[in-house]
Amino acid sequence: MSTEILKTPRANVSIYRDAEELALKAARRFARLADQYVVGCGRFTVALSGGSTPRAMFSLLAEHPFADTVPWSSIYFFWGDERCVPPDHPDSNYRMANETLLSKVPVPAQNIFPIPTEIPEPDQAAKEYARALSKFFFAGSSAPKSGTAPLSSLPRFDLVFLGMGPDGHTASLFPHSAALAAGEQIVVANYVEKFAAHRITLTAATINNARNVTFLAAGEDKAEMLKNVLQGSYQPDLYPSQLIRPANGTLLWMIDHAAASLLTEQNV
Ligand code: 6PG
Fold first, then answer.
1. Ligand 1: centre distance to CA 145 (Å)
2. Which residues lie with the beta carbon below 6 Å from any ligand 1 atom?
3. Which of 45, 153, 157, 235 has its CA 20 to 30 A from that of 248?
4. H-helix or E-strand containing 138?
5. Phi-psi region for residue 93, left (φ > 0), alpha (ψ -120 to 50) or beta?
6. What is the pLDDT of residues 47-99, one digit of tens each?
7. What is the reported pTM?
């Protein structure tokens, strides 16, 4: 079945038959971008998300043909957000990616950068991750020489995968939460009232500095919010996914028919 493409003023949307087809197409996109960046730049940097669609994509990537053909040793893995739980906790996004993918393919351990939730204080953990990102992305390249500042002090990921909750959150940028106003910080701890817990998240500024941002969303429980986010009025405090507008990169929504059911054709 051919993919339906819907262009909206806010983003390009690719619509697939179901969650299974979506996971396969997302795995192919990951593999294609990895090849492209490894050939062109010698490495590929990706931030992963939690959620059910990425889980299916990770499982596919851990199998033939991807497991044997993706340039794993040149890929660097980061996370877009994390729950404040130990890395072996069932809610850990790191654990999910590790169990379904990273432990099954030849990625060197030093290429894997989990959010350091072993640091008990969420603000400290966020600061430490921001430091680790700055070190990785800027070590040796960003020191301002003779007064010239780097173009941006934000990391520039090659690809950021995101999901969207039915409440419009993405990464751990929840409606009306403090992280929505984090400005140019790289990573912040965000208190999420509905869970009465902190999460650690890349900020919208960091995500928007990426070369490619890809949302994966499946299921009819996403349809109404997707309509609001892509075709409703701009209210990012209520619909944080609307904050994601890469300044100098691509934005693609990969969704299934069920999630797309309320979208309408628009002139762009
Ligand atoms: C998390 C996330 C989160 C997720 C959405 C969508 O840790 O929960 O990274 O932002 O991507 O909640 O999740 P689903 O794909 O499972 O609906």
1. 41
2. 49-53, 81, 93, 163-165, 169-171
3. 235
4. helix 122-138
5. alpha
6. 999 999 899 999 999 999 999 999 999 999 999 999 999 999 999 999 999 99
7. 0.94
